[in-house]
Write a structure and sequence with these properties.
Growth Hormone, Chain: A, 15 helices, globular, 409 residues, mainly alpha
Length: 409
Amino acid sequence: MATANEPTLGTPHPWLFAVLYFPYGLTIGFPAIALGFLGRRAGLSTSAIAGVVGMSFLASGWKFLWAPVGDYTLTRKRWYLLAVALISAGLIALTVIPLSPRNLPLLSALVLVTSVSGTFLAFATEGLMVHNSSPATRGRAGGWFQSGNQFGQTAGGGVGLWLMSHVPRPWMAGAALSLIIACCAIALARLEEPPRHLHDAPLWSRAGDAWRNLGGVLRSRGGRIGLLLAVLPIGTGAAAYLFGSLAPEWNAAADTVSLVLGAGGGIAIVAGCFAGGRLADRVSKPDAYALSCGLGLLTCVAIALSPRTALAFAATTLLYTFTLGMVAASFTALVLALVGRSAPATKINLFFAINSLFSIGVLRANGWAHDHWGTNGMLYTEALLGVGALIIFALVAGRMRGAALAEAT
């Protein structure tokens, strides 16, 4: 007999979490790929584009502060539907406003608002995933969950660029993307709504419960390992958010970019998600994350050394995208191993948000390095930062006893 904290309808297939999480990835992928490529063609600098794209990281970086609102107020499904409506409005606005230096502040604000709306969609999906999965299926659920996110960031962004380049009116691209994310909400019907924890309690009681849940995770040894990995400048995939603006250096046309960073990137990152999940099942989850990040750093060097041709752009960026899938899945597996069923969005987003917040620094460092040292200088900067972070992780993890790492396996 199911308990109050367990689903009563059986465990659904985890592909549903990929569908539900896709729109969140789109709120990041559309600015990075579509606005990045079109902004560079409109004459915007790489650092200016990085500033606009960085607004999506800003929302992701601080989302743990308002995650308790998603945990303790409306139902998960209501939050999801409300977020879909707000994201749709934001995407249409982003396709209507012309890309120009004068409009950069407005575009940055719209990216931020759309991304904040996306965080509530993420909270809803995370709560539904934790309730509708069992400990035995959390690894697969995490892999599918991140495949939807990463597919939205890559294929979703590529589709947005293709639409912006081919439809008669820009607003039509935003309307088409809004229709796609509205269809994602159909998956809600296959999932059971989790109980609303303390929904009748006073505000201060719910705030106190959220704080206790966060404190319990951070006091654990495994939680401290996860926090260290979230803080270090590895696994950010920052270079990928500038690939759209860098494509002209490899003589890649708009259709090539939309295909490589869109459909091709979506396939590559989903494959990486499954590879990272399998790796996390075979070795400790912190080690799986570190190995995935290391492969991404090697790919940065490979991109820098590649010939400036469209074929080389396709091959190296797809490999980089594959490593991002590995990183996302292995980190999600680590986080899911640390959280329980109470206030899941609050605890999950503590790690995700901190990781995203520190990603802003790497993204801005990449933009600065590109403006001063060119594309190769940017790629080598990301690689060197990552190597330093891996060394720090190895030194700190080596001093912690096996029990600390065992909590995060």
